[in-house]
Amino acid sequence: MSPRSGLTTERVVRAAAELADEIGFDKLTLSAVARHFGVKDPSLYVHVRNLHDLRVRVALLASAELNDRIGAAVAGRSGKEALVAFAGAYRGYVLEYPQRYAATQIRMDPAEVAGEPALVRSIELTSSVLRGYGLGADAGLDAARLLRSTFHGFATLEAAGGFAHSRSTDDSWPRILDALDLTLSNWPVHGEKDE
Description:
about 200 residues; mainly alpha; 9 helices
């Protein structure tokens, strides 16, 4: 902690996430965060290495928040019930924090974030839902990609106002989840080793 400013890495990252919510993740800069605290840019370098490091930390914060919501939603559920809970928590987070969520989509160096608890938990949560459908490793990875693509695509389009149609997204969402449940329940097997 810097005695003059009271800054900590956690405070800097949380402020950056809140600022991203206000101005957009793509507009997030070290200067904007420094202005928020009333300090000069160099004061932040005690807490983050550079803008990329700050953005990765915001991404990990958002991932942890998203995982907390998903984890609470799926607790004690399995099969379609877990899928619906997972999807609802995911969509809800994206709609509430579209810019903070945008941080989770940045490319991160695998070596830099290997073993990060937020990323490990994300994999565990997705795997636990898919285990309820009896999917092994290879099929589970393919299915996880389908779920992420669907949840991400729907929620980000919805958050951006991309579904300008008379039919409510709340009417479409359950049908999409029904289709995903049906797909997962009848996942095609092509001879891969799913053990």
